[in-house]
Amino acid sequence: LEVRSITATRKYADADNLNLKKAARDLRVANVLTGHYLVEGSKLIVTVEAIEATKERVLWQSTVSAPAQDMLALQQQLAAKLNQGLVPALVGTGSQVEGATQPKNAEAYDLYLRSAALSRDPAPNRQALQMLERAVQLDPTYAPAWDALGRRYYYEASFSNGGKPVMDKSSEAYEVALNLDPTLVAAAAHLTQNEVEAGDLARAYQQATELVRRRPDNAEAHFALAYVLRYAGFLEQAVKECDTALGLDPSNGSFRSCAMAFFELGQTDRAKEYLKLDPGSEYSRDVTPAILLRDGRIAEAEQSLSQMSNNPVWFGWLLRSCLQSGGVRDTGVDAKTESALLAQRDPELKYYQATLMAFCGDNQVATKLLNSAISQNYCAFSALQLDPLLAGVRSSPDYSQLLTASQNCQQRFLLERAKPRH
């Protein structure tokens, strides 16, 4: 029984005239769980029904009620109803929906639910992070809340200059989640992605392949494997895993970074598809100019700069200084800016900025960034040969050394992953 994520289904929540057949097609599901709620005095009444979308046939229906301020009691009643009625209707008798942990505090559970509605952009992400920190204080035994907290720490570390200390908090939160619930695939997949960015590709690969072996139907497991393969430089394999993940969970905004693998291959149309998973986000707006440049659409890229955020992670001002009036000029990176570019924690961001520096004609800074990314196990062997923005680097005297270094990076990964682990 594969359940679509909150991010995938959220857009249908406010629809006045929901077309169930279309929703089912969009989400690639056979059945849709829908319903409504009513506040009656101090009581909250929730009616839910499962509908077989193609036939518009009701498979199961139930109503529960609880005090309006007691979301935990409501959750417990709904869980019981799902176990007793919905799951047997969908997958047969004797089946149950159970996790290793259940929420135990109403306020904590409410904070956990509310945090899920907030975007990954820095400001709302920080709000969600604070809500989840409070939630795990109130209820430290609910594994999904720890996983959600780990993810919010990850976004804070990656896109708000939280750096390594916050990244360490992210990994610690995932580890707590897994100690509480070793079967929680999302937490294991997210921890694997953190290990990838820390450079431990071989360990991450073994963990990701084990996740896929255990749960071939799980989108997060396939995305984790795609993440490892992307950093290891096996882009063709990475995009296949991205597409598998997307097929299993077609609206998951967390898969947006697969765009990186596609545009490194020069497949800009596919890169745009993945950015559309998180439309309007800072990430999408900040990455779009780089995709347009790879398409050779310089004037449109210049126009899209106005949509970029001021987040220093993306060095938007640097790209603006390069693109002026439909032309391209050397950015003239000073020592302070070069140091800031090289200080980035995530090697993929170093690679990303290197391609923009190469496009702007600063091959010296581009080469330094590429060397630094490769030294952190971003094995960009395929990307160095295929990425449209690296044409200038490929004609430079440093190119052969970069190619050799990236190939050696891949070979180290292959040797390490072949070693037995205990």
Show the helix and strand layout.
Blueprint (H helix, E strand, L loop, with lengths): L5 H4 L10 H8 L3 E10 L2 E10 L4 E11 L3 H21 L14 H10 L6 H17 L4 H17 L3 H18 L4 H13 L3 H14 L4 H13 L3 H14 L9 H7 L3 H8 L6 H13 L3 H7 L11 H7 E2 L2 E2 L6 H8 L4 H13 L3 H13 L5 H6 L4 H4 L4 H20 L4
Antiparallel strand pairs: 1-2, 2-3, 4-5
Helix pairs in contact: 4-5, 5-6, 6-7, 6-8, 7-8, 8-9, 8-10, 9-10, 9-22, 10-11, 11-12, 12-13, 13-14, 14-15, 18-19, 19-22
Descriptive overview:
It is a single chain. With 422 residues, this protein is mainly alpha-helical. 60% of the residues lie in helices and 8% in strands. It is built from 22 helices and five strands. It has helices at 6-9, 20-27, 71-91, 106-115, 122-138, 143-159, 163-180, 185-197, 201-214, 219-231, 235-248, 258-264, 268-275, 282-294, 298-304, 316-322, 335-342, 347-359, 363-375, 381-386, 391-394, 399-418, and strands at 31-40, 43-52, 57-67, 323-324, 327-328. Strands 1-2-3 form a three-stranded antiparallel beta sheet. Helix 10 (219-231) runs antiparallel to helix 11. The model has no long low-confidence stretch (mean pLDDT 91).
